Amino acid sequence: MHVRITHIDGKLPNLALMAISGIHRSRGDSVHFTRDVDRGLFEDDYDRVYGSCIFRFSQHRLQRFVRNFPNAIVGGTGVQPPNLIGMDGTSSATSITVESAVGVPETLDYSIYPGFSASLGFTQRGCRLSCRFCVVPQKEGKNRSAKSIAEIWRGLGHPKKLHLLDNDFFGQPRDNWRERIREIREGGFRVCLNQGINVRLINDEAAEALSSIEYRDDQFRKRTLYTAWDNLHDEAIFFRGIDRLNRAGIPSGHVMAYMLIGFDPAETWDRIWHRFHRMVEREIRPYPMVYDRSRIDLLCFQRWVIRGLYRRVPWNEYRRATKSAESLAAWERAAKTAA
Ligand code: SF4
Prior knowledge:
The structure is a single chain. By secondary structure, this protein is of the alpha/beta class. It folds into 2 domains: 2-102, 3-Layer(aba) Sandwich (Rossmann fold); 117-292, pyruvate-formate lyase- activating enzyme. Helices cover 34% and strands 16% of the residues. Mean pLDDT is 90; it is low at 82-93. The strands form 4 sheets. It has a 5-stranded parallel sheet, with helices on one face. Bound molecules: iron/sulfur cluster (SF4). The site of iron/sulfur cluster has 10 residues, from helix 4.
């Protein structure tokens, strides 16, 4: 069998695609892996085509992919079946799980991401909370443990770097997360928890456990602990969690906090600025996540923050220069050169 595996979006290697590739290779099938959603001029025909889309804002790429490969099997958190329109105007692609598409995966095929040296996986699935904008509770269900560190690590000969995709590490049974922390610490692993730890539910024991491990950013360089402050109403509980981290020896400067913007219809710029300034004054690094991608003002704000321009270019100046989407790239290039 000749299969095409298509990584539609996302910076990180895609676990589901690695599993699909692993299954096909174990059967002796030939696998063509690509990030290209278009069919190449001289590209082969395939017995089966897969695609994974994880972000809602990648719908244009997803639609293009489905137009090019109308019989593709498509999955991922960014897939909204009613929006999948095939070439004939009908919804012809299917959205299913890895297991229902190809069976239960036994090995992950890391070879499709040759530049990635870390090990990737989940120690738990599910989440204790149910935020209105989030698909995790619906997709993953109840909180439960998944794999041990020994099962996730690729083993001897591979760097001791773990990329854990857990959405609620401390939501799994206490004995299990304590065991995972012990494995990480005693194994000398560096770990990136970039889905974020749930700071709203953190207690002193969990904060101390975090402070005992080598948490890192997604490049495994900078000390970074990811979390989120999505809703203004969570201000008190968010900072109570931050205070707990601080008391356990984790400085606020290690914390990067996702901040959802453009979701709440009652949101105002005053509210956005309030969250932003409160974090910056505590030395937390904000990371805006824009829900409504049609809001150019929010997209500009996101770039201004993520790229650290807020430390040297006043917002009004940046916004004036980026009034049109077209000028955004040019302005950023100029700002970068000036920096
Ligand atoms: S805490 Fe995170 S994973 Fe859990 S429901 Fe909210 S956004 Fe989703």
